[in-house]
Amino acid sequence: MIKLYQFPISHFCEKVRWALAYKKLSYKMCNLLPGPHAKKAMSLAKTSEVPILQHDKNVIQCSSNIIDYLDATFPNNKLTPINEMQQLECAEWEKFADKEIGQSVQIFFYHTLLKHPDILIPIFAYQGPWYGKWLMKIVFPTLTKKMRGIMRINEKSAERAKLKLKNAIDKINNRLLDHSYLVGNSFSRADLAVASLLAPLVQADKYGMPWPSPLPEPLQATVDGWQADLLWVKKMYAEYR
Question: Are strands 2-6 and 28-31 parallel, antiparallel or unpaired?
Fold first, then answer.
């Protein structure tokens, strides 16, 4: 039995959800509440970070490590190329996605969403324990302060994150001018990583939770302005998710 401990809103968790779906693997989704999740996460792994995948006696943390494990354990629909040079290219794109996209999306989105508990609390509690909304209302002020402090979320960091995202999108589109995929001639973990971490910007239907519509401003105006540059992300979701 595969269990995935995760947050529905997390794009790093979406990366693993997509990998599991692509490999057509059955699994149990265990949705945790941000903040209170730490106790459960620390009982399973070394840190409180999600996603955490549990399979038999194996516990794997970090989305890239989980894909490594899934490819090694369930080689059907492999996401890692056989070619060693392409493996290195995939690793570089994943590092790029983590550093330039993953953290930037978190900072840019949460800077606005944390101001809207009426929107964010139902997302945090989505398909979680029955007491989720009640508990999140209690811990939300403390959680907001901790998230802003730990993740360094503020007006300036949100503007920097927005710029980093635009630069990352431009780099991806430059690569795709004469390529259909980021690495080689077929879908790989590089495409999955980049597309999943950009998915909040297109509010992908198959993401794993319903997105609020519209997003609070200035998020909605920004993502609206980027849609023409995110067609490849939508294509990857339509064809491979």
Answer: parallel
The 10s digit of each residue's pLDDT in 105-156 is 999 999 999 999 999 999 999 999 999 999 999 999 999 999 999 999 999 9
Q: Tokens 């994150």 identify what position? A: 161
Please report, in angstroms and rounded to a whole number, the separation of the first and last CA atoms in the chain.
22
**Contact (Cβ atoms closer than 8 angstroms) between residue 44 and residue 59:** yes
Angle at CA of residue 197, ends 3 and 34, nearest 5°: 50
Does residue 50 contact residue 7 with C-beta atoms inside 8 Å?
A: yes
Return the CATH fold of 2-73: Glutaredoxin (3.40.30)
Fold of 84-240: Glutathione S-transferase Yfyf (Class Pi); Chain A, domain 2 (1.20.1050)
Cα(105)–Cα(100) distance, integer angstroms: 9
CA-wise closest residue to 13 among 64, 55, 58, 80: 64
Q: Using one digit for the tens of pLDDT, what is the confidence trace for 10-22?
A: 999 999 999 999 9
Q: Contact, 153 vs 107, CB < 8 A? A: yes
Domain residue ranges in the chain: 2-73, 84-240
pTM for this prediction: 0.96
